[in-house]
Automatic annotation (TrEMBL):
The entry's keywords: Dioxygenase, Iron, Metal-binding, Oxidoreductase, Vitamin C
PANTHER family registered for this protein in UniProt: EGL NINE HOMOLOG-RELATED, HIF PROLYL HYDROXYLASE, ISOFORM C
Keyword field contains Ion transport: no
Cross-referenced InterPro entries: HIF_prolyl_hydroxylases (IPR051559), Oxoglu/Fe-dep_dioxygenase_dom (IPR005123), Pro_4_hyd_alph (IPR006620), Pro_4_hyd_alph_FE2OG_OXY (IPR044862)
Cofactor names: L-ascorbate
Gene3D superfamilies per record: q2cbj1_9rhob like domain (2.60.120.620)
Domain Fe2OG dioxygenase as annotated: residue spans: 92-188
Designated name of the protein: 2OG-Fe(II) oxygenase
Presence of keyword Iron: yes
Pfam family, one: 2OG-FeII_Oxy_3
Species of the source: Citrobacter meridianamericanus
């Protein structure tokens, strides 16, 4: 049911957000997995230039050889979603890339879209939030800029946010406590640069 609702919202609104898609136990397992990984400063653009004026998070990329059952559950969710999107909308999704994103206190990511300049191979952005007991005042919301308005979404644990990568202008507002997510992109690697 969640996949059907997600696909419908993506089609009708260009984005989907729902709390409690993943259980707290699943979130706990992913937090534990993130604690075993090595994080590096996130860069911007194809050259991955470090620019703390634009973004100040840290990332740890997933690989093809992931063995954590928690990560595999997330990847299976994405696989089912991508297969459904391909069946419904012929998007040509044929790959996926993702990383853990850690935002230390005070960090942010200024307004952007999720494709490198001149490319449209990222089709759908998928974010699973891993922040237990997130409350008002903790900051770190995603702010979606759409139709001359702003939509603020909490990064509460177990919530999933999906949107069209090339069209969705968004930012991560400064966080007042450590903020963690699994962030990925469904890819059509056959799309040529635009």
């Amino acid at each position: 049911m969640i996949i059907k609702n997600l696909v419908n919202d993506l089609h009708e609104k260009g984005l989907f957000y729902q709390e409690s898609v993943f259980s707290f136990n699943e979130v706990d397992d992913l937090i534990k997995e993130s604690n075993t990984r090595f994080f590096v400063k996130a860069g911007i653009g194809k050259n991955k230039d470090i620019d703390n004026e634009i973004r100040s998070d840290e990332i740890s990329w997933l690989t093809e050889n992931e063995s954590s059952m928690a990560v595999i559950r997330f990847l299976n969710f994405v696989k089912e979603l991508s297969e459904t999107l391909n069946q419904e909308f012929f998007l040509g999704i044929n790959d996926f890339e993702a990383h853990f994103a850690n935002y230390p206190v005070g960090s942010y990511y200024k307004t952007h879209v999720d494709n490198f300049r001149g490319q449209n191979n990222r089709v759908i952005t998928v974010i699973l939030y891993l922040n237990k007991e997130w409350k008002d005042g903790d900051g770190g919301e995603v702010c979606i800029h759409k139709n001359n308005s702003e939509i603020l979404l909490s990064p509460s644990g177990g919530s999933v946010l999906c949107f069209v990568s090339k069209d969705t202008l968004h930012e991560v507002l400064p966080t007042n406590k450590i903020r963690l997510s699994l962030t990925g992109w469904m890819l059509n690697s056959k799309i040529f640069p635009s």
